[in-house]
Amino acid sequence: MTTTTISPAHHRSLGDHTWQDQAVCQSTEYNPVDPEIFFPGPDETEKITAAKSLCGQCPVRRTCLDAALENGDTDGIRGGMTEEEREPLHEKLASRLDYSRVNATVAGRDVHLTKAERRAVVRAAYRHGITEQRLAWLLKISEEHAQKLYRETRRAIRNRDLEQTTKTTPPPETDGERLRDAFGTAA
Predict the structure, then answer these.
(1) Contact predicate 62/23, CB 8 Å
(2) For residues 111 and 91, what is the distance between their CA atoms, to the nearest angstrom?
(3) What is the Cα–Cα distance from 181 to 183, expressed in whole angstroms?
(4) How far apart are CA 2 and CA 20, in angstroms?
(5) What is the mean pLDDT of the segment spanning 128-134?
(6) I need a surface site. Which of 32, 64, 82, 107 has the fewest CB within 10 A?
(7) Alpha carbon of 146 to those of 103, 133, 139: distances in Å?
(8) What letter does residue 32 receive in the DSSP assignment?
(9) Between residues 167 and 98, which one has the greater pLDDT?
(10) Tens digit of each residue's pLDDT (9 = 90 or more) over 95-128
(11) What's the pLDDT score for residue 161?
């Protein structure tokens, strides 16, 4: 499982594209940028170098990379990485577990979450006593689905506790062929 931590202030909210206004690749009157350099051919090393150079100066580079991964963008240079460099990250994205994203979601922010992060939100919400209605609102799901997730979480915690109890409880002593209880009678 891949675990990362990022300052919560940098998390992109659902549907938020305002970060693009801060991107260095945005062409302006004083900073003309040819968007074609971000979609080079495999052998166009000069374009790749130029695009990566711009990305290296960008204040929202990480947000751009996250957006590309979360939206499944596989074309062009995004977040300072080529398509080939992002490919392994796309494959690992579902198992990414960034606790700052989990905490931001539990605090009420609309943040893009992976499957692993969604499971962590359910566990954290359950541990903190967050109502099923609030969980439903946080994850944008129905209350019935939130109830189901809480049932599954309770069951998983109970089963984990049972497994730990059985591992720590010593096996009963045998007296000959029969087991004896605490009072010395045959069990």
Answers:
(1) no
(2) 20
(3) 5
(4) 27
(5) 94
(6) 32
(7) 18, 7, 9
(8) -
(9) 98
(10) 888 888 899 899 998 888 888 899 999 999 999 9
(11) 77
User: Which pLDDT value is given to residue 52?
Assistant: 92
What percent of the chain clears pLDDT 90, i.e. is strictly above it?
A: 35
Rg from Cα positions in the chain = 25
Beta bridge pairs of residue 2: 96
- DSSP H helical ranges for the chain: 45-56, 61-70, 83-92, 99-106, 115-127, 132-139, 143-168
CB 77 within 8 A of CB 51: yes
Q: How far apart are the C-alpha atoms of 164 and 70, rounded to whole Å? A: 37
Which range has the worst mean pLDDT, 3-7, 39-43, 81-85, 135-139? 3-7
Q: Which residue has the tokens 């062929």?
A: 177
The token pair at 171 is 């096996």
Q: Find tokens 């944008």 and name the residue.
A: 140
132-139 helix and 143-168 helix, angle to the nearest 10 degrees:
110
Phi, psi of 163 (to 5 degrees): -65, -40
What's the number of CA atoms in the CB half-sphere (13 Å) around residue 47?
A: 15
d(CA 45, CA 76): 13
- Does residue 7 carry a pLDDT above 50? no
Tokens of 91: 């494959």
